[in-house]
Amino acid sequence: MRDTNENMIELIDVSKTDNIYSSLIRHRISGEEIKLRFGIEQMDYGHLKRILEFRPFENTGVSPYRYYFALSYRKDMENNDLAYIDVRVEQLNRHKQYEFKVSKKYISNILWFNSLTDKKQIEKMIEI
Predict the structure, then answer these.
(1) How confident is the model at residue 34 (pLDDT cuts 50, 70, 90)?
(2) Helix H segments across 1-128?
(3) Which of 59, 77, 82, 110 is least surrounded by Cβ atoms within 10 Å, i.e. has the fewest?
(4) Domain ranges of the chain
(5) Contact 47, 102 (CB under 8 A)
(6) Integer Cα distance of 67 and 91 in angstroms
């Protein structure tokens, strides 16, 4: 397990507006930190909501939790559309990786964002 969240994509929020589902992430591309909002499947809304509501440490009211995709994943043998991805959960100086289920499509989006070296292809997704 990594000792730092450096260069990891952070899951910030998931939302539903007028039956349109989206995910908000924070990512660093070419040294610039940006927030990206992109559309997701309805089933991932619930999966990502579970991640954001997960509070494994005792002092839940003391400091906010942060969630980072560790980019390691494995197949779900029971459902071909889903996979398990490792998420680094942080609060204050505590951190631990946990496994969560999301769609393979969502994981492929995260991996694609992670592979980008410039923001030209994603400029319309950037949130200010």
Answers:
(1) very high
(2) 42-53, 104-115
(3) 77
(4) 9-120
(5) yes
(6) 9
